[in-house]
From TrEMBL:
The keyword Hydrolase applies. It catalyses: 9-ribosyl-trans-zeatin 5'-phosphate + H2O = trans-zeatin + D-ribose 5-phosphate; N(6)-(dimethylallyl)adenosine 5'-phosphate + H2O = N(6)-dimethylallyladenine + D-ribose 5-phosphate. This is Cytokinin riboside 5'-monophosphate phosphoribohydrolase. PANTHER family: CYTOKININ RIBOSIDE 5'-MONOPHOSPHATE PHOSPHORIBOHYDROLASE (PTHR43393:SF2). InterPro entries: LOG (IPR005269), LOG_fam (IPR031100), LOG_family_nucleotidases (IPR052341). The keyword DNA damage does not apply. Pfam families: Lysine_decarbox (PF03641). It is an enzyme of class 3 (hydrolase). Its EC number is 3.2.2.n1. Keywords: Cytokinin biosynthesis, Hydrolase. The lineage of its organism: Bacteria, Bacillati, Actinomycetota, Actinomycetes, Micrococcales. It comes from Pedococcus ginsenosidimutans.
Length: 271
């Protein structure tokens, strides 16, 4: 096997090829990319890697961001791969301790652990903290998937397995990939975003069907009225789409819905 540089062999030279800076009449290969003519660089990839001089703007380029994104998926998959059955719980970061919604979140966390599930939240304060707290108090796995935001304070103290993300889409993948179902507590735009993305993934069969339970009939009732009224009448969703959502005030019922759906999927023969 020849030890000649790749660009020398491609040019078909028998003795010595001219430096890339002087001759561009050959194919220059950099990974899967082929460069010709004026696009052939004047220096090699290794040379640029080992040269400590010059601008650090490369830290903010899209190729470098791709590496950061890749690292977030690798870290997330590695941290959660052996978690076991889990349920993602969403809800407002603004829910105050001692309020009914906070107590509801704590009850949900406890009940899920008692049923054999780990609890996954966004790791923040409010309803997320409540669910994590309930999971810890029940002796279970309490997962927090944090996100880099200017107004967040990091993972709450009731998380015993935490992963922080820069990118929302990497974080969202973890919520779905490692969950057997979603339980949605009262929340705002972020909670609505997670809710409707989950429904869309189930509706379009991008994920194996899993239950989505909304807790709080008074809070979410208006949303269901709107879906069954204006939205259904306009024909932009079907009744079957709306039936993907379950609404209840009963924590035990919410957990039963998750367990029943989980058992149905487990009993289903492989395709």
């Amino acid at each position: 096997m020849s030890d000649e540089p790749e660009q020398t062999r491609t040019a078909g030279a028998t003795e010595q090829a001219e430096p890339a800076a002087r001759s561009h009449d050959f194919d220059y290969h950099t990974g899967p990319v082929t460069l010709r003519g004026s696009r052939v660089p004047a220096s090699t990839t290794d040379q640029r890697l080992l040269d400590s001089r010059g601008s650090t703007e490369w830290l903010h380029t899209d190729p470098w961001r791709v590496m950061r994104i890749q690292s977030e998926f690798v870290e997330g998959f590695g941290a959660l791969a052996e978690l076991g059955p889990a349920v993602s719980v969403f809800g407002s970061a603004r829910t105050e301790p001692g309020t009914p919604f906070y107590e509801l979140g704590t009850e949900v966390g406890r009940a899920l652990v008692d049923a054999g599930y780990a609890v996954i939240t966004g790791g923040g304060p409010g309803a997320m903290e409540a669910a994590n707290r309930g999971a810890i108090e029940a002796g279970g796995a309490s997962v927090g998937l944090g996100i880099e935001l200017p107004f967040e304070q990091g993972l709450n103290e009731h998380v015993n397995l935490g992963v922080n993300f820069r990118y929302f889409f990497a974080r969202k993948t973890m919520f779905v990939k490692y969950a057997r179902g979603f339980i949605v507590l009262p929340g705002g735009f972020g909670t609505l975003d997670e809710l409707f993305e989950a429904v869309t993934l189930v509706q379009t069969r991008k994920v194996t069907s899993f239950p989505i339970v909304l807790m709080g009939t008074d809070y979410w009732g208006g949303l269901f009225d709107w879906l069954r009224g204006a939205v259904l009448e306009a024909g932009t969703v079907s009744a079957r789409d709306i039936d993907l959502l379950h609404l209840t005030d009963d924590v035990d019922e919410a957990v039963r819905i998750v367990v029943r759906a989980d058992e149905e999927v487990t009993a289903r023969p492989p395709e």
